[in-house]
Design brief:
Layout lengths: L1 H28 L3 H7 L5 H10 L6 H13 L13 H36 L4 H15 L2 H15 L22 H7 L3 H38 L2 H8 L4 H29 L3 H6 L5 H10 L3 H29 L7
Helix pairs in contact: 1-14, 5-6, 5-9, 5-11, 5-14, 6-9, 7-9, 8-9, 9-11, 10-11, 11-14, 13-14
Amino acid sequence: MLRFIVRRLVQLVPILLGLSILLFAWLRALPGGPAQAALGERATPEDIQRYNEAFGLDQPLIVQYFKFLGRALTLDFGNSSRTGRPVTTEFLERFPGTVELTIFAMVFAIGLGIPLGYLAARKHGRWPDSAAVIGSLLGVAIPVFFLAYLLRFLFAVKLGWLPGSGRQEVRIEATHITNFYVLDGLLTREWDAAWDAVLHLVLPGIALGTIPLAIIVRITRASVLDVVNEDYVRTADAKGLATSTVRRRHILRNALLPVSTTIGLQTGLLLSGAVLTETVFAFGGVGLELRQAIANRDYALLQGFILLLAIMYVLVNLLVDISYGLLDPRVRVR
């Protein structure tokens, strides 16, 4: 197992290097450049030249890249041109919100997706199966921003059942220790703050979790249908094992192997920043901050956030590979 993990870690190095090159080249190709973004539209050519000389932007691109890579290794991405604060500090403040939203969305998707997928497979060819297939297609087809606006209008504006924006009610005097608002409320025993933070997660979490829910339903259904026809399942039935035992130990356990991979990949995608969902609900995570950075041409923040999110996504995929190797020993020898 250790050799398997080391091999996966070594494979991450060229991936991250290639990503850093693409990110560096893309940001340098954007109109205006970092100097124009930092100094504003009224900056004179002389101001831009002095800025480029001060930050080494007049040097060859290869020199700039290696300097950028050296700073990235120490998590030094400079300061945001909009707030003047270090990019890493901004990320550490915003990322907990995205993590909370991702956890809620994936709990919603997994909690409904696996039972619905299993039910659809058990009722193959009947109306529950057809309903699950049609529902999963709709879940993938409906744009996230449309569903987000629909949920906000119905449950926040018209009915007033749930909050429609933010991470927490501003009138609540909550103590923030970790910037995970739900966890902070539990740690400080401020139960009203924790519950309010949970309520603020419901609508964006459902909107964000709809696509993963649809995908998990489809993958679970297909996987269960494949496993049901395996020889070891027929053998278990022939030996007279209880139906519940066959379903739990032989069908569901083996069917969840590809589902676990899907769950890991979807979690990594959601952690990469839900720009549309966070924008609709004004949810203070990395997605909303990325949108503001694009609007303000905040190159330093864009560069740092994208690279840090890419690292998070790669690490989540690494954990998925390791978990899959633990669940299925055959993966480790391939």
